[in-house]
Amino acid sequence: xxxxxxxxxxxxxxxxxxxxxxxxxxxxxxxxxxxxxxxxxxxxxxxxxxxxxxxxxxxxxxxxxxxxxxxxxxxxxxxxxxxxxxxxxxxxxxxxxxxxxxxxxxxxxxxxxxxxxxxxxxxxxxxxxxxxxxxxxxxxxxxxxxxxxxxxxxxxxxxxxxxxxxxxxxxxxxxxxxxxxxxxxxxxxxxxxxxxxxxxxxxxxxxxxxxxxxxxxxxxxxxxxxxxxxxxxxxxxxxxxxxxxxxxxxxxxxxxxxxxxxxxxxxxxxxxxxxxxxxxxxxxxxxxxxxxxxxxxxxxxxxxxxxxxxxxxxxxxxxxxxxxxxxxxxxxxxxxxxxxxxxxxxxxxxxxxxxxxxxxxxxxxxxxxxxxxxxxxxxxxxxxxxxxxxxxxxxxxxxxxxxxxxxxxxxxxxxxxxxxxxxxxxxxx
Length: 429
What we know:
six-stranded parallel β-sheet
């Protein structure tokens, strides 16, 4: 992370703690800064070749409550499977690289590293499957090598993904970390970078904390989402910096269950596609708090996206103390994510609240599917530059006493209070 980015992130965290109105966290747990395990069960050494066997053996034989400790060096590994209450601790000066051999990740279909009619042909690099407790700690790095040519090919994982988009197929590339049917997982201090696909994907997780995590991938690396909670509950993402080639965070709820009770507090998002909910929301998303967030140069800012092929109910979402800069769509609440979509899964967004939100220019979009399923949104102390423009359709908007600017197309917004300002967070360059 560059020094200016670190400065802005830390400055914003300080300002938000000093100026924000107290909003109750949605995560129902009491979340404090995690503490690494005191016991170390193994200290593997980097071999300079393939460390998969030694790392997996250390994890498998580590007793509950202890950590596998990587002190320094460059480790190269294929897929690793974590077990309950075991921590992978990667210290500053140590990097764990994911090998770029599709055969190491293939699920048996021979599709990994290829374009096919489906995109599930690869195992993840690190998986937490039906585990409880444990996680990943330390100030070291996990590098997915998404920009490194695959073994036996001149093409990188990212190039394969972009070619799949052009050919209207599905890329088969590994996710960096998959957390599936797990409980009480913790990430603290770690840097995740260059994932071939999503950095962290979650499915049916109950209790997850991401504290002080850095996630980085190039802005043009396709489908490299930062953290995607899906069908999960009681999740906190805090004090983290996320810059990716897709959604910085995307809260999802497909047919496998709802996502609810999520707190995203005091974070910095650089390039990427923004703070997203969707596009799969058919099982419902609710009770989400986004507070103390900088969105600096993301294409979209605060985003809820779905359509009639995957829509559902999104409700009780609060955005508070948010600063946006350099976004094409600082607000994008859209029920027509894919205008060609077909189906009867109607997206409905209600009890959406924006409070103390600041930005510059761009398009501010709030678009419901029809008048019967209009968006229900409250805006209070929401201010953008005069160059910003509202695009409002099929939305019932309530303006709070502290107003909105520029004014909404159908009503005037009183300018009763300026509140805190993004100028405090984004000092002059």
